[in-house]
Amino acid sequence: MEFDFAEEQPKFLMLMYGLIAFVAVVGGLLLLLDVVPAWFARRREAQLVAASVSGAPLPRRRKQGEGLFALFFLLPTVLLLTVGLVVPAIRTTLLSLMDGSSTNWVGLRNYSWMFSEGSIVRVLINTLIWVVLVPLVATGFGLIYAVLVDKARFEAVAKSLIFLPMAISFVGASIIWKFVYAYRGEGDQIGLLNQIVVSLGGEPKQWLLESPLNTLLLIVIMIWIQAGFAMVVLSAAIKAIPGDIVEAARLDGVSPWQMFWRITMPSIRPALIVVGVTLTIATLKVFDIVRTSTNGNYDTSVIASEMYNQAFRYGQNGQGSALAVFLFILVIPVVIYQIRNLRQQREG
Amino acid sequence: MAVFTRPRQAFVIAGVIGLALSATACGTGDDKKSSKAGSAECAAYDKYEGHDGKKVSIYASIRDAEADLLRDSWKTFEDCTGIEIDYEGNAEFEAQLPVRVDGGNAPDLAFVPQPGLVKRFADASKLKSLGADTKTMAEQNLPADWLKYGTVNGTLYGVPLGANVKSFVWYSPKLFKEKGWTVPTSWDDMIKLSDTIAATGVKPWCAGIESGDATGWPATDWIEDVILRTQGPEVYDQWTTHAIPFNDPRIVDAVNRAGTILKNEKYMNGGFGGVKSIGTTAFGEAGLPVTTGKCAMHRQASFYANQFPEGTKVAEDGDAFAFYFPAIDTAKGKPVLGAGEFVVGFTDRPEVQAVQTYLASAEYVNSRAKLGNWVTANNKLDIANVASPIDKLSVQILQDKTGVFRFDGSDLMPAAVGAGTFWKGMVEWINGKDTASVLQGIESSWK
Amino acid sequence: MTTATPTVAAGAQKTDGTPTTTAGRVRKRLNSRTATLVSIVIAVVWTIPTFGLLISSLRPEDEIKTTGWWTAFTNPQFTLENYEQVLFGRSASSGQLAGSFINSLAITIPSVLFPLAFACLAAYALAWINFRGRDWVYIAIFALQIVPLQMALVPLLKFFSTGVTLGGVTLMPAWDLVDEQKFAQVWFAHTCFALPFAVFLLHNFISQLPGDLMEAARVDGATHPKIFRTIVLPLITPALAAFGIFQFLWVWNDLLVALIFAGGGDETAPLTVKLAEMAGTRGNEWQRLTAGAFVSIVVPLIVFLSLQRFFVRGLLAGSVKG
Q1: Helix or strand or coil: residue C247?
Q2: Do A19 and C289 touch (CB under 8 A)?
Q3: Chain B window 68-87: which residues touch C at a Cβ cutoff of 8 Å?
Q4: Which portions of this protein are annotated as coiled-coil regions (chain B) (predicted)?
Q5: What angle do CA A184, A186, A190 make, to 5 degrees?
């Protein structure tokens, strides 16, 4: 197969149209927002002039101008979200009350299935382990690393290495970890972990078979991928701490330990929240890692992978949707936390 | 909607311009196609004429090298008729197809390897029944045993295409010759041979059921083959249709019989370790120790031939070959477990029907078989066109009138069982759980 | 932890006005040495799995499948065959990697730009324009992050294939796109799915900007679009770069959305789709994926390295209210 540039032309053309559309939409929106208020301002000025001439009472400044701006700023996002996520979320909720082929209403049967099935209860527990460990360890690790590496000479290289896993697709990651956890009962090991065990004089183990160790090992993969995200964001936040504050603290003779707790931590709190919340949600939705490593066998399944299997592979739309709705419910604590944060922010 | 229509308009405009440009660009390419029609080479395709320039999309799970062979196989058909076949193969086929169909974006044709999935689409009235020409062609060329699996509630929806034989045990003819072992022709001989080999310190069997998100399926094939052998085809049919419970005592019996090999620490798992290593051994690697002498026998389908590394001679006198998984009770016939895909149509435009008919024809199956690495149950297949020894053996078995053919049971069951709890249950079974509770669990999941 | 305790003691001493002792200085240098050492070790450990993949990608197929990658050091057998197969393979599906590379670019670039722009506008409105119910709008958008995109595939596909009709009135016709036009669907889908996270991330940064700055501009008579363009945008460049990188990585590595909305044809299939196909019908050719993973990693890495300098300047430029 030779590479034929002419064949690729339509793609570039399409990309160009995409970029033109982008410029047209965003530019047009901003232009619209600039022109329209200017027109309103002129009209209001004219009204003011007219009013002052005729001596009539001044028209009150209307507050809705703000609302209009907000509407236009939010319009693209709200429209896209309605089509892309709100409608599907409502549909999923409705489907969760229907049977596998989405033809008959079955009430709450899918939910009672969820809690009566022994294996599903295990799934819920696993999800809990994931959602506690991943954000905690990944954020903690990212933070420690960001502090350790700050202003070191090889900082850029080290950060790139930690960030590297984020650039690898799940297909790539699953192969990478296959080379870590693989097991051979006899002959040469091809898995790194077993090779280490064997060279230390131990017996090779089938890592992915032993519950609950296997869940922890899968969590390691997720942390391996996500710690780079935490590290990059937190490192940037640390660098944004104004130099004069740090300098002042140093002049006061504050130890590094105190510096960390009294200056660094409070300053990067917003970034910590972003990282923690993002990782929590990402973890709730994770399914590729489990699906490609064990497909949920050996007590490793989580809600999202079970949802995918039920809805897409087993043709059980109702049960799959019920699991998805359960995910919506699980995120409520995070949402409440976010509301509290927002309130504090508005007050502070 | 004000802002919203803007990108849309841009896209539509973009699309129109794009189409115009591509139309001029391809102008010269189109002439080549129809020029072949009417030539001697095209005489066989006359009956499919009249659809010049039409497009037919096909979606399947076959990809990479095998997909290239597919594309090559209908090249002449495309050139002669002017129908353009747009083939797409994907690993996530079983999960993606329902999404596309539900989303209103179904392909024209799909090659579905699971009769259970054909039934699901037919029940949801998503499928078109076969056109008259296609039906005639299919009924002429394909055995009734196979057509039955493409039929839902009396209507024929799927035309059997490719096939594979699952009742095979892979071994090394070289090693067997060297050690003086003979290929067993009965179950008892096979067990005797296993004991002989085990006594020499070599694990006679190897197996592996790890297969990504399909982990477990090789074990279900094992079980099905044994059920077919111990209980016969009637019980097998009742079992796959859930006329008898999944954990019927006869089934429990058969599973335990399979366990005398699969869960026997003396026999398993050559080249990999103990019985439990079956669960984590990739199915593709599981049979490779056969060629290195670390394992003597590996039960796996005919397509396992492709798993051996390049340079391995797969032949009756080579490094690896397969023998028929022997019958237990010869009175119950010569059971053959197999699988294959079915061509189903989501649309029935004339050109789609033409392609569907063509795929059932003698022209097609021989054109595909000549390219190698393919077997079908289509009786128009000329065995002279089949080159590889293992494919030849498979065709012989499929065309053998004394054979009792049955389709892979897990593909017949609803996906939640056949591709869900059955697979998972087998993983637990290999991992040490007892037969009764595993089968009980699968039974309770089948509603 | 053990090293931290004496430092606190030393720090406490220093607050009394005692000049830094030599011992203290040595200890401090030692600490930074340890920190350096530890961070190097971690970086190396973190990279070992990827490094193993790199070594594997250069080994022959049967070696990969039978021995560990570390044996390559004692028994070096290297080949470029995996890369050859991936880049110029005999099969039609692997031979056109260059084409799918372009597809990946054509999918990724607009899929990053659109959500970036829309989320930026929305985040500004939610942070700095006063209107009723804005907190609820924000919380609603935030909560949408949890909707699994798998559940959105079918309705969105229906939206494209049948359009929108309400009470017999066609609000939007079916898109009916063919070949590379399908990119538009992918952009649309990726934009939808990216928005909640993008709004959440950018809102966090935009709302942290100093209020005085906005107030001063308002007093000068600047309108919201003007403030947005001249004050906010320049200040949040690092945050934009950050989201840009994450969205780029996500779209570049995405398989599911591309599969559903672009399909696997040569005209539209991105790298990930082609790579997944390359493992063979029964997944047994996975050794090719070792090379494939490295081919697909190149672009994201370049993007990360070239945008990294934005991070160094500080992602939360205005995190401390001025």
Answers
A1: helix
A2: no
A3: 68, 71, 86
A4: none
A5: 35
Same domain, B218 and B97: no
Distance CA A309, CA B41 (A): 48
- Listed by start position, the domains of chain A span 5-62, 109-347
Contact list, B62 vs chain C (CB under 8 Å): 281
Residue type, B172: S
Q: Is the pLDDT of residue A197 over 50?
A: yes
Best of A9, A14, A17, A169 to disrupt the B interface by mutation (most B CBs within 10 Å)?
A17
**CB proximity list for A211: less than 8 A, separation 6 or greater:** A298, A299, A300
User: What is the complex's ipTM, to 2 decimals?
Assistant: 0.85
Residues C39 and C58 in one domain: yes
**Chain A residue closest in CA terms to B212:** A292
Contacts of A90 (CB under 8 A, 6+ apart): none
Instruction: Tell me how far apart the alpha carbons of residues A55 and B427 are, in angstroms, rounded to a whole number.
Output: 89
Q: How many CB atoms lie within 10 A of CB A184?
A: 24
| B316 shares a domain with B345 | no
Q: How far apart are CA A212 and CA B26, in angstroms?
A: 59
Nearest CB to C91; choose among B14, B65, B103: B65
Calculate helix-pair angle for A118-149, C22-57, nearest 10 degrees. Answer: 130
Query: Does residue C319 or residue C94 have the better pLDDT?
Result: C94
> Does the pLDDT value for residue C62 go beyond 50?
yes
Classify A344 as helix, strand or coil: helix
| List of chains touching A (3+ CB pairs within 8 A) | B, C
Distance CA C42, CA A145 (A): 9
DSSP string, B381-401: --GGG--SHHHHHHHHHHH-T
Domain residues for the domain of C51 are 4-79
C61 and C106 both lie in a single domain: no
Residue C260 and residue B96: Cβ atoms within 8 Å? yes
Residue B10 lies in a domain: no
Of all residues in chain B, what percent carry a pLDDT higher than 70? 91
Give chain C's mean pLDDT: 78
- The C residues from 15 to 44 touching A (CB cutoff 8 Å) are 15, 17, 28, 31, 35-36, 38-40, 42-44
Query: Which CATH number characterizes residue B376's domain?
Result: 3.40.190.10
Pairing outcome for strands B84-89 and B55-60: parallel
CA dist., res. C115 & res. C191, Å (int): 5
**In the block, residue with structure tokens 């049979």:** B287
Q: Rounded CA gap, A51 and A58, in Å?
A: 6
Cα B3 from Cα A6, distance rounded (Å): 34
- Give the single-character DSSP code of A135: H
Residues B297 and B440 in one domain: yes
Total structural domains in chain C?
A: 2
Both tokens of residue B75? Answer: 């090249």
pLDDT at residue C18 tops 50: no
What pLDDT is recorded for position A58? Answer: 55
Of residues A328, A296, A333, A334, the one with CA closest to residue A117? A296
Hey, is the C-beta of B383 within 8 angstroms of any chain C C-beta?
no
> CATH fold of A109-347, please?
MetI-like fold (1.10.3720)
Establish if C284 touches chain B: CB-CB under 8 angstroms: yes
The residue type found at C255 is L
* Interface probe with C: pick from A29, A72, A171, A280, most Cβ of C within 10 Å: A171
Could you give the number of structural domains in chain B?
2
Whole-number pLDDT of residue C319: 41
Interface contacts (A, C; CB < 8 Å): 369
Both B330 and B210 in a single domain? yes
Predicted confidence band of residue C30 (pLDDT cuts 50, 70, 90): low
Q: Which residue of B has its CA nearest to C156?
A: B103
SS3 B59: strand
Do the domain assignments include residue B228?
A: yes
Taking phi over 0 as left and psi of -120 to 50 as alpha, with beta for the rest, B164 belongs to: beta
